Amino acid sequence: MGKIVEQYIEIAKKRNPGEPEFHQTIEEVLTSLEPVLEKHPEYVEAGLIERLIEPERGISFRVTWVDDNGKVQVNRGYRYQFNSALGPYKGGLRFASNVYPGIIKFLGFEQIFKNSLTGLSIGGGKGGSDFDPNGKSDAEVMRFCQSFMTELYRHIGPETDVPAGDIGVGAREIGYLYGQYKRLVNRFEGVLTGKGLSYGGLNGRTEATGFGIVFFARNMLKACGEDIKGKKVAISGFGNVTWGTAWKLNDLGAKVITISGPDGYILDEDGVSGEKVDYLLELRGSGKNICAPYAEKFPNAKFFPGEKPWGVKADLYIPCATQNEIRIDDAKAMVANGCKFLCEGANMPTTNEALTYLMDNGVTVGPSKAANAGGVACSAIEMSQNARKMPMQKEEVYAQLETIMNTIHDSAAAAAEEYGFGYNLVAGANIAGFLKVAEAMMAQGLV
Ligand code: 2IT
Fold first, then answer.
1. What is the model's pLDDT at position 1?
2. Residue 126 known to be catalytic
3. So what's the architecture of 55-188 in CATH?
4. Residue identifier of the C-alpha nearest atom 4 of ligand 1
5. What pLDDT is stored for residue 288 in this prediction?
6. pLDDT band at 150 (very low <50, low <70, confident <90, very high)
7. Which residues lie with the beta carbon below 6 Å from any ligand 1 atom?
8. Which of 311, 79, 337, 67 is nearest to 192 (CA)?
9. Are the C-beta atoms of residues 357 and 332 closer than 8 Å to each other?
């Protein structure tokens, strides 16, 4: 690692102590940017990286609500507005018990590059709360969302900051958040994405992230002379992203052999397809152990309690659960099993150590900020639909999504090639995402 980059990582660590996930993404991104900074000393002079790793604004607020037993509950809410060089801050809200500033900052930082890669006019931001909607009643979730929005509404707006969902924030939460926003500002406007179809949501947004991941993976395989059709794919998770990924993989003739949940993983050699993919929808967001009921319903499937699916032999691995789910031992198991392709569905699912090991051992990796950008890309399309006040057809959305994912792949591949990395999509995505933001930041002066 070069001196300049090391120096920025030190700054980040000092300013954000105890936030390893944030340090991890900064280290991963900046390492790829070394040759770019060598070529563009003016970026260093303009303090561009130092500005990039410091959110433009971060808010933290108390969220008070009353549970069904009449007990007062207090949670913390966050919104980190990272970078608005390309457009309004854009990024999801995550509601999960492990949410703290380090998680929101890592997600917000990644979102800058991801959003830039889409080619659409969206800056980067992320928010959330340590509130866990799993196991809460609808009424409790509604009261929490209303209280959360009662503070957040003053910091967001269709031209300022447009949140969406992430882990723990789905259609139900977006609905309650939207209702409260509208009540407070007395305007019906596109301030959130991932809305229900009856009130401005985009046809196809729910499956967009998963579909986009598979389009990206198909490109990656094709560039290496392989076809996604007929491939055995191990995926993790059981949420929205997993569901969309499984659906599109089946569509394209690949075979999904695993899914996972809090209780372990399922190996289904017959393939997770047809009614089993529909069953994922039922399980989605249930917060319950999902493998045991799956194995009961489909007895040919094998249930491995407490384990992750990375030890199975597959042609392609797509982690769709959460950050750092692939660690060095998992990476070693994958390589030992002859793994050639990993396409990241979840945000930063691979530790830096595991990522380096995989790439050093000839695995082609599709990084999450490129591969899962289809979700936020369709969010930006939803923003444009809301501004035009004209609904779009699903086929139109799917076609745009596919084009965007192809373009992201090609621009990441081209950027990596240009800066001497060869076919390295991890470096290429960082560089291509960065260059556009850098150009806009340079043009906009020292702000
Ligand atoms: O990680 C992500 O890109 C998201 N959670 C979606 C963000 C968005 O604004 O649609």
1. 66
2. yes
3. 3-Layer(aba) Sandwich (3.40)
4. 92
5. 74
6. very high
7. 90-92, 114, 164, 166, 193, 347, 375-376, 379
8. 79
9. yes
